[in-house]
Every structure is written in structure tokens, then in C-alpha cells.
Design brief:
By secondary structure, this protein is mainly alpha-helical. The protein has seven helices and four strands, in the order ααααββββααα. It has a two-stranded antiparallel ribbon. A hairpin with a 6-residue loop joins strand 1 and strand 2. Helix 2 crosses helix 4, helix 2 crosses helix 6 and helix 3 packs across helix 4.
Length: about 230
């Protein structure tokens, strides 16, 4: 029968063995952990570099010089009158809003960011798909403003704070359609700011859209320069 001394010695050996194994794991994992930290630092640096380049320069690979900006092959090399090109671009933007307003927030800042990106990449004529890909590229690097959700958020975690409410009871057989998006613009009759429904926006011509949302024609008509998709 083991004595108390034997039990204490056994516990000491087990503790020593556990400490040796922990030290060995630490020695083995340290290089991996340090390499991961360095890789994450490099990733953040590359991300910041690409983000800054997308904001201020043509979207090209810094090493190869190959453009990361997508041009629809159907529009590559297409030429058209400047006024027609401006109307074509405006109609393309309206189509883009009709199809992608669920995730793209149509505001002055986002319009400026999107159209400036198109200009820097010499896309004077663009369609809905080119706008979609360009907007996704900008969104990927956090360059688009998000639609305000109207919720109060926790300053530390960013989580939505939902106010406490008394429970309500509804007829579960009744379903309510989601609230359609609205857009803030200026009424052409009164000159006052008001909300426009998706249906009203869909029925607008390109010129009416520019007047209502005060989009300058110069914001959508890009300079006559560049090798691809130029308006002449």
C-alpha cells in the first residue's frame, strides 16, 4: 500500500512532467505564432496599400501593372457622342440602383466615390455590371458608406442596442412585406427635401434623376481620355 510520501512523490513527478510538456509545446508553437503574427501584419499592410491605391490611383497590380478594374468586353473600345454617353451612363446607374439598392446605399458620398473610381480607371462608358463590380471592389476595402439602420449601437462592441419592449401578440397567419427602400431628394415642384419611393425612382428619366438628387452632369460624364471604353 502506497505511503503518503509515495503519493506526494508521484504528484511531484506528474507536475514536473506536465511543466516539461507545456514548455515543449510553447517552444514548438512559438515560431508558428510569431510567423502568423508577422503574416497578419503583412496582410494588413497590403490591405492598406491596396485601399489607398484604389482611392487615389488606377486600380492596377503594383508589381505586374495589370489592371484589376473590370471592363465589359461588349463595351471595350466602344465610342459614342459625349451627350449620349452621359445619358447611357446615367441610365446604367439607375439600372444598377434598381437591381442592387438592397446593399448599395445611394448617397452623395457613395456616388462621388463610385464615379471617381470609374474616372480614375478611364471608364467613360459603363453599364450596370461594371458598376456592380466596381461597387463591390470599393465595398471590399471599406470605401463605401453603409446605409444608416437607425439603431443605437454599443460604443465598445458596435452591437445593436434593441430597446426593451413589452411582448405583443399577432396573428401568425399574417405576413407583412418588408419596407421598401426610400431615397432622399428634392421635390421639383416645391423645391423641398422629401423621401422618394423605389417606384418613383424607377420611373425617373436620367435627367429627372439628376435634378431630383442634384447629381451634376459633370459627375457622370467623364473626361475624354483613356484607351478603353472612351466617349468621343
Amino acid at each position: 500500500m502506497a505511503s503518503e510520501r509515495d503519493r506526494l512523490a508521484y504528484r511531484a513527478r506528474m507536475a514536473e512532467q506536465a511543466a516539461e510538456e507545456a514548455a515543449q509545446r510553447e517552444a514548438e508553437e512559438r515560431p508558428i505564432r510569431e510567423a502568423t503574427e508577422e503574416l497578419n501584419k503583412l496582410h494588413r499592410k497590403i490591405y492598406a496599400t491596396i485601399r489607398e491605391r484604389i482611392k487615389t490611383m488606377p486600380d492596377e497590380d503594383v508589381i505586374t501593372g495589370v489592371s484589376d478594374f473590370w471592363i465589359d468586353p461588349d463595351l471595350a473600345g466602344v465610342s459614342m457622342d459625349r451627350s449620349f454617353a452621359g445619358a447611357f451612363d446615367a441610365d446604367s446607374y439607375l439600372e444598377f440602383l434598381r437591381e442592387h439598392s438592397s446593399w448599395f446605399y445611394d448617397c452623395e458620398a457613395n456616388r462621388k466615390t463610385l464615379f471617381s473610381y470609374m474616372e480614375r480607371n478611364r471608364a467613360q462608358i459603363f453599364n450596370c455590371e461594371m458598376l456592380r463590380r466596381a461597387a463591390l471592389r470599393l465595398q471590399e476595402y471599406g470605401l463605401l458608406e453603409e446605409r444608416p439602420d437607425g439603431y443605437e449601437r454599443d460604443p465598445e462592441t458596435g452591437g445593436i442596442i434593441i430597446p426593451r419592449q413589452e411582448p405583443t401578440y399577432v396573428n401568425l397567419r399574417v405576413s407583412y412585406p418588408p419596407t421598401p427602400p426610400t431615397y432622399t431628394g428634392w421635390d421639383e415642384q416645391t423645391g423641398l427635401e422629401r423621401e422618394f419611393t423605389q417606384r418613383e425612382v424607377d420611373r425617373m428619366s436620367a435627367d429627372q434623376y439628376r435634378r431630383v438628387f442634384r447629381v451634376k452632369r459633370s459627375d457622370m460624364e467623364l473626361p475624354n481620355s483613356g484607351p478603353r471604353g472612351n466617349a468621343r
